[in-house]
Structures are given as structure tokens and as C-alpha cells.
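Sequence in, structure out. Go.
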Amino acid sequence: MRASRGMLGILLGLAAGLAFGAGGAVVKPVLEAGWTPGAAVFTRIAVAAVLLTIPALVALKFDLRPLWRAKWIVLLYGLVAVAGVQFAFYASLERIPVSTTLLIEYLAPIALVLFAWVRTRRLPQRVVLAGSVLAIIGLVLVIGPGMVGSGGGSLDPLGLLFALVAMIGVCVYYALGERAGDALPPIALVAAGFWVGAIALAVLGATGLLPMHAEFGDVDFLGGTAPAMVPLLVVGLVSTAFAYVAGIAAIGMLGSRLAAFLGLSEVVFAGVIGWVLLGEALSPLQLLGGAAILGGIVLVRMERRAEPETSVPLEIDLVPAADAPATSSTPHAAS
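Output:
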């Protein structure tokens, strides 16, 4: 049963990576039509929040008390892992190249390994260290050659800081996903987090901190044309609602470390889908980088599980003692 659960977790993690990776290719025509990234992100998150509301209520058996007891988890998830990551990512893009921002953000799995090392004071297994190095090499090969200079801007400290904040937000996404099952069904956490994130992004948009502009004309979509809201609805359903739910389920089954490395498959899937749908061919170095990322995931998967407690990279006391529910075990995003 544990082997079956692990295989299901891997499939869900890869499915989440595929869904996240497809989002960029689907939403690109919308951005080219005049939508600002902030408007597109807010729309996809708001769509996902609406779509998941009823399933989340069903999972909660229409009892909202667990949401209130887990209010700090929900707030942290929505503000940091949803809204915070998106805001910091796009704020970083305004100041440093896209390649640099992506490379820093996707170092989240490595950061989780290092944090676990510091927290437990135990050196990670050699196979995990080897997988981490291989994954970093793969990221540099996939992201660097095709994207250097595409974001514009110099490497100013504020841009690097925003990219680092985005990476920390991704780490929080995985850390909360691993322990969220104690307090809430995964789909309830995701839905509530989306509502919190959508409200936070709306406030940022209203204050002008996150530019929002939309053009409601027709855009290219799957070889034809469609209203701009059609690809955004698809992204909201597939690359946001499904991707987050599948991702959090994978974290619950695999732990945050392996799930985070599986999340790197998003980079590979995004390149392949961009190649197929947009004709953005991958170079041989990028293909080699994709293979290196997959190799790194395989090595991390080979980690021996003799000490399961080391798989928990972060300990965050989010629920005050007076509000904390009775719990037994820990079981999940994150573009």
C-alpha cells in the first residue's frame, strides 16, 4: 500500500508540474493582447477560487469551523504561498532578467534540503546531495540559454530580494502542504487560500502596487481564436485549481522534499509545451538540462526513509494552543 501511495503521489506531482507548465503557453497570447501579468494572475486565481468553493464545502461537510481553527494556516498560505509568490515574482521581473528570477525561485527544493540540514543538524544523504547538484545544473541549462536577457533590467539588489521572497514563498507552499492535512482537507486549504490570495492581489491592484489592465478582445487559442477569458478560464481550471490540488495531494503522500523536486518538472513541461504549441524549439543544451532535472528527481526519490522525521523541512507553529485541533499525522502549488 505504501508503494502504491508513493506511485500515486509521483503521478500527482508530475500531473501538477504538467498543469503548471502548460499555463504559460496558454496565457501567453492573453499577455500579448495587452493584459498585464497582474490582471492575468488575479483572474486565474479568482476563477480557481470560485471553481473550488463547492468542492471545498463538500470536503468540509459544510462545516466552516475547521477553517476558523486553521485560520493562521489559511492566511499564511493565501498571503505568502499564493499572493506573495505572484507579487514578488512579477516585482522581480521589473528589475532583473527573467532567467535570474526563475533560477532563484526554482531553487526552492535546494533551500528545503539546506533548511532540513540546519534544523536537524544531520548531513543529507549523498544521493540527495547528488540529486540537488544535478537539478541545479539542469535548471541552469534549461532556463539560462533560452531566456537570458528576455526580462531586461540590471541585477539590482531589490530585484534579487523580490526573487528571494518568491523562492521563500514556494518553500512555504511545500512546508504548509506537508502539515496542512492535520487541520483541513487539502482542497479546502487550497480554495480558502485562493480566496485570501485573490483579495490580497485585488488590494495590491487597487493601490497600484500591482499594475492591472485587461483587454477583452479575441486572442489566439489552440490554433484558432477565442475571447480572452476562455484561455484564462482554462488556466484557472487546469493550471491553477487542478495543479494546486494535485500538488498538495502529492506533498501529503511524498513529503515536501520529494514533492518539491517533482515540482521542477514544471520547467521541463513548460519547455516541451512551448515547443509544441508555440514553436519555441528547445536547444540541445536545454534538452540535456531537462534530462539532468529528471535525473536529480530520480536520485532524490532514492533517498532511504529510515528516519522519516527528517522529511519535514520546516516547523511552523501556526495555530495557537487555544485554537489548535487534535491532530495525528501530517500529509499540499506554487508560477
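Check: The radius of gyration is 19 Å. The CA atoms of residues 36 and 214 lie 7 Å apart.
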